[in-house]
Design goal:
The structure is a homodimer. By secondary structure, chain A is an alpha+beta fold. Chain A contains nine helices and eight strands. A four-stranded antiparallel sheet of chain A has the order 1-8-3-6. In chain A, helix 4 (108-117) crosses helix 5 (119-145). The longest helix of chain A has 27 residues, at 119-145. The N and C termini of chain A lie far apart (46 Å). The structure holds a DNA duplex.
DNA sequence: CGCCGAGTTGAACTGAATCAAGAAACGTGG
DNA sequence: CCACGTTTCTTGATTCAGTTCAACTCGGCG
């Protein structure tokens, strides 16, 4: 099991003492998943936080029979449906592998145990939740105030991996526009 | 100082023992504010959670010189810029009284103190933060998937106070449309 | 080699913004 | 309690951004 990237990602967020890291390794379970496979289905309760060793994920929901992409995630990023994870309500969307991916899963029970044993780990959990909240807040403000073209330029700036590795038609629904329109925006942006 | 509504609102969320409630009363400070007055300015760090005894608030930010309303709050509701409150980064928006209002303010220092002394109070804080997160999540999904007309109908259903007590042109920017367009949507909805 | 999914392009259409003018509603001072 | 000015809301005409539908290109893969 490769855990170096996870440990490095954690240390980038907040320092954790070696004993806490050791205890964390005990609760990890690895999971390999192929491109296009579903990781978590809409309607299930989310019981894990996952870390992406390699690969890419997306989550999406449905609107009028069509898939709407909510967000994309890549190697060295954490992901969970924080809402479902906490409230134990069923998830409202489906999580799928965009590429063959190698994941590390941390179950809720194990995490709660770590929270009780290590204050530093509780701090880590809080910081991850806060990042989650902040990025949700930013997305909300952006959707509220920016044009599709501005949103696409932001994406190029801040999340170039999305533009490089996610098919255009998925990015389109993520931005709330049609693939045709995104294609035209891209032409315009490239030529300018 | 009127604290009955606050206590009732708390008990609706989670039971809190009398000693913890007493301790909480000690950290409260009341504040009267007139219609149109600013409560918190953009750029300040948010140091309080507030409870609305009576009146109404809104928060808004700017886009191209125009005010964009983020959310509206009424009597018996809590409000804070959760992001700024936690990270101590400056707030990105301004909070203002929509009506003459009577507020109760809880300072962060006092709240942290209560968290340490009473486990039940920590639970309350977590639940309020979660509600905050959930409503942000829902807003995000709605802005992503619904038409302005659907958003307005949702508002009528779920937050009728907004429609009753907030001027139309403020609701328009909240929904991401112009006042003219909202006026036409309203005409259409009423006549059907 | 041929197919199929992804991306592009064009033309017609539509929902929403903009601009401009009035009509209501509202509060304030006389 | 009325008159006036200001703010809010409505309505119409025009313009524009973005969608829809349909046809076509391109690249990868069986």
């Amino acid at each position: 099991m490769h855990t170096e990237a996870l440990i490095a990602a954690i240390q980038r967020i907040t320092p954790i003492e070696p004993e806490a890291l050791d205890a964390m390794l005990d609760i990890l379970s690895p999971r390999q998943i192929n491109k296009g496979e579903v990781i978590w289905n809409s309607g299930e309760v989310c019981r894990h936080i996952l870390f992406i060793n390699s690969g890419a994920l997306r989550y999406f929901y449905y609107k009028g029979g069509k898939e709407i992409n909510g967000q994309f995630f890549f190697e060295n990023e954490f992901f969970t449906d924080y809402y479902s994870f906490i409230t134990r309500e069923p998830m409202g969307f489906t999580t799928e592998a965009l590429e063959d991916s190698s994941l590390l899963l941390m179950p809720r029970s194990g995490i709660n145990n770590l929270y009780e044993r290590f204050k530093s780990f509780e701090r880590l959990g809080r910081l991850i939740a806060e990042q989650n909240f902040i990025s949700l807040h930013n997305t909300r403000v952006d959707l509220h105030t920016k044009t599709p073209e501005e949103l696409y330029l932001d994406l190029l700036q801040n999340r170039p991996l999305v533009v490089q590795r996610v098919p255009l038609y998925m990015i389109a629904s993520y931005l709330g526009i049609t693939p045709e329109h995104l294609s035209r925006i891209r032409r315009k942006v490239v030529s300018s």
